[in-house]
Amino acid sequence: MEFYHAATDFFCGQPSAVTLGKFDGLHRGHQKLVDQIIRQKAAGLASVVFVIAPPGVPRILTSQEMHRKLESKGVDCLIECPYVPEILSMSPEQFLKDVLIQKLHARYLAVGTDFHFGYQRSGDADFLRSMQSKYHFRTDVIEKECFENREISSTYVREAMKKGEIELVSHLLGYPFSISGTVQHGRQLGRRIGMPTLNLIPPSEKLLPRNGVYYSRTLIDGAIYQSITNIGSKPTVDGTFLGAETYLYDFSEDMYGKEITVELLSFRRPEQRFASVEELKAQMQKDISSGKEYFCEN
Question: E-strand spans in 56-122?
């Protein structure tokens, strides 16, 4: 898959099918759009995903995670376009002509019902349809995916994440919510009290769910391990750490510096501060025991 992170320095050398948006999380609604452009490969069109993401806003999927998911789906080209004046100031027709037609050779566009683009978001699906004959392309407007009588959106996903409703999050996304990264050195308290854990500090752009303890599974070198994960700041012993601390069942290998992925499955309890390390240890033992019951039942 070709990848560009640029405002204007990108190009597709063949006729293409393009979908555009923020694609925060690449949830089930976004995947409908992506699947639609991939279908156009049968007509000889390259599939292009054009992402415009606002800066400084934590995202459900990091750039690297989105790259991997789109590549695995068979997308030919991903363009991450920053919020810059030369793009944001373009009129809808200028963006259509200069970017979609001239740079990407778009012959097919798939957009959502609420899609807007161009200066002050003045362009929409109706505008694209009105330009089809002039610029020789076709537009399909894809209806929203819904769950429980509500449109699936990034806002819906973010609300569920804030509440710790991780099963709902994964259902809306269409895949398990996960955190990936390199195992970091911590204070090794877990090892000293007989419950060693793996510490992950995700990129600052990664949006994390509600702080607390989650049943999880951890992927290491293609193998899957049952685990239990604390999301938060370790208030009892640290307070500065912000990430994921994971205990793996039946696992004791040294993983420092290794790449792992932790998938969150179900919320166990909120993160809390304990009066002593002994109280923390007792709660961790309860959490681990509860996790064993969870995995026996699921």
Answer: 77-81, 106-112, 116-117
